[in-house]
Amino acid sequence: MNDDDYSATELGSHWFQGPTQDPTPDRVEGEVLRFGPGVTAAAARRAGNTPTAAQIWHGTPPPRRRRRSLRYVPAALILLVALALLAWREYGPGVSVRDVAVTAPEGPLGCDGTANVLGVVRTDGRRGTLAYHWERSDGTRSAPLRETLARGQKEARLHLLWTFQGRGTHHAVARLVITSPTTHTAEGTFTYRCD
């Protein structure tokens, strides 16, 4: 290299020439003219996470958003539905009474006999508790009673044992009164006869 041609302080003429009068744009997007590798709207859309201009300019990848995995959503929904059904079966509406009937002895009851009066309560098969009492035509009434029904049990059989003594004839009426979950009544009649 020739030392006479070299100068550390001299710059070539291409370093201090100004820009040309009419620069040509790199590309045209709609009505927007782009010069150089600037950030375009298309580049921002492709990035997906709306990175900063500096990240796009320097080629830095945008910060990744944590994607929530959607593959577990169907299983989670199925689990929630199953739990809701179980909770509804367990804690939802209780037993519902559909029908109440009382059956008493058909023929006359003899001297010093005991009548077995049967109340049959038909339900919808849900689990629950029936509250009831018996009323007799001699003016007596039983204490409040309860019958617990298991799931799937569609019938409750409630007994009243009514004992008679002495001579005479009595037309007996036994009334079953369901007080809960809803009010229902039914009655049966029989005759006690002792001559």
Automatic annotation (TrEMBL):
Q: Alphabetically list the UniProt keywords.
A: Membrane, Transmembrane, Transmembrane helix
Q: Which residues cross the membrane?
A: 70-88
Q: Where is this region: Disordered?
A: 1-25
What protein am I looking at?
Uncharacterized protein
From which lineage does this chain's organism come?
Answer: Bacteria, Bacillati, Actinomycetota, Actinomycetes, Kitasatosporales
